[in-house]
Amino acid sequence: MGLTFVKSTCQNAHFNTVFHVKFSQMDGEQNTEIETHIFERPTDQSHVLIIHEKLMKRKTDRYILNIALAYHKLGYKVTILTSQYDKHDCIGDVKFADSVSVLYSGWWIPRSFLGLFRSNMSAFKAAWMAFRLICFPPEPKPELVVLDVSLFALYFLKLFTKYKVFYVETFLELKNTDACYEHSKNNPTLLEAKWVKLADEIIVETIGFCEILKKSYPSLNVKPKVLYPSIDIGLWNEPGIKIHRIIPDLMDNTVLFLTIGKFKRSSNFKLALDAFELLLEVIDDKTVTKRFQLVIAGNCKTLEEKFHYNEMMAAAKQRICASQVTFLKQLPIVHEKTLIMESTVMIHPAKNDVHSDFLLKAMSLGKPIVATNKGIASKILVHRLSGVIIDPEPRMFAIAMKKLIVSPHLQVFLGDMARDTFDKSYSFESFCSKVNQMMKRPLLKDSASTLCPSESVKTRN
């Protein structure tokens, strides 16, 4: 039996349609079977436009750039329509100038009037950018519009155009609270609850935001798509530096325990501090424990974070293990990567968190993680496979940390499993794959019949 594969390509104005043709010969008779695998691949005419307010250095800006770079990698032309952008005051570690075009609109609209009506001005900007797109669409005409601004923009786009629209829900009003996502929800207006249903797809950052969205919009008929933010882009792919440039007085054979987060009560750094102190008691060998060092790191920006940082510092000074605890209140990306690379065990004590950055970064570098069975960690990690998930109690954390220290093979196993999980489900490649799945759409039967051969055709001589 002979077997030959021929790959053919048909094109329309916006997509390449690729199919495979299989020829076979059996029992002296020639049979021709055409086996088609149809998928769509963007051409130079495919355009994605993103409406985003103020492209700066915020976490939401980084997430939007994740989406923009994913579409660019998939072959789309990408444009961001924003009301404010300064290339000198933007995310510097992710290079996107050559990949994404930036358009301005509504820059003249003030943020507020004497500190009032901020939400109204934000909605006005969103509506203005939507009408800018409706009245003066860029060339080529966008196939898809992605937006994370006020729902006014979504409503007007759906009312006056036929664009496919993806809505990114970021829950900005919830990010400054310490509420647990299991008990949190937004309180939308009647119009917002109605307009959000107009979106073709709704995108959220984590499973935590997905749960909040379902509680906030109980009548939502679109299943939200969870796209965890990509951390393996930009400076994260650069090599680390020497650990002594971050902590100069560190011994060469130090065993590092690391926890990273915001200096807020929701980060629950006290649990890590209590567990570390108990660990020094559980392991009754001073020659071993004197090499242990706990590092608590994060970025102090707000007044609340600075207050909690000083509070944690004062509490640590009262403990016996004070000399073995290091606090870092500035954490550039390269420093964060270096600390994770040099650490033996990652500690994630937060139990009310909805963000996954520290967990994903530790997983990407193949590090064992001890985390609470509350919050986002229990949704990402699998107990005893990609991490250790336990109750948020100091003694249980101390016992888990001890087991990892005395079992190097267990560290390797958990680290390797965590890295494999990251590569398959949370890497930038996986992010692009999920974005591509949302864009896939079946070809119409008429177009399939004109562009491609029928699914099964047999000729006999």
TrEMBL record:
Catalytic activity: an alpha-D-Man-(1->3)-beta-D-Man-(1->4)-beta-D-GlcNAc-(1->4)-alpha-D-GlcNAc-diphospho-di-trans,poly-cis-dolichol + GDP-alpha-D-mannose = an alpha-D-Man-(1->3)-[alpha-D-Man-(1->6)]-beta-D-Man-(1->4)-beta-D-GlcNAc-(1->4)-alpha-D-GlcNAc-diphospho-di-trans,poly-cis-dolichol + GDP + H(+); a beta-D-Man-(1->4)-beta-D-GlcNAc-(1->4)-alpha-D-GlcNAc-diphospho-di-trans,poly-cis-dolichol + GDP-alpha-D-mannose = an alpha-D-Man-(1->3)-beta-D-Man-(1->4)-beta-D-GlcNAc-(1->4)-alpha-D-GlcNAc-diphospho-di-trans,poly-cis-dolichol + GDP + H(+)
InterPro entries listed in its UniProt record: ALG2 (IPR027054), Glyco_trans_1 (IPR001296)
Matches recorded under Pfam families: Glycos_transf_1
Any one GO cellular component localisation term in the record: endoplasmic reticulum membrane
Residue intervals passing through the bilayer: none
Record pathway: Protein modification; protein glycosylation
Domain Glycosyl transferase family: 252-412
Location in or out of the cell: Endoplasmic reticulum membrane
Stored Gene3D superfamilies: Glycogen Phosphorylase B
Keywords: Glycosyltransferase, Transferase
Glycosyltransferase recorded as keyword: yes
GO molecular function, one term: GDP-Man:Man(2)GlcNAc(2)-PP-Dol alpha-1,6-mannosyltransferase activity
Membrane topology of the entry: Single-pass membrane protein
Name of the top EC class for this enzyme: transferase
Biological role stated in the UniProt entry: Mannosylates Man(2)GlcNAc(2)-dolichol diphosphate and Man(1)GlcNAc(2)-dolichol diphosphate to form Man(3)GlcNAc(2)-dolichol diphosphate.
Protein name as it appears in the record: Alpha-1,3/1,6-mannosyltransferase ALG2
Source species of the chain: Phaedon cochleariae (Mustard beetle)
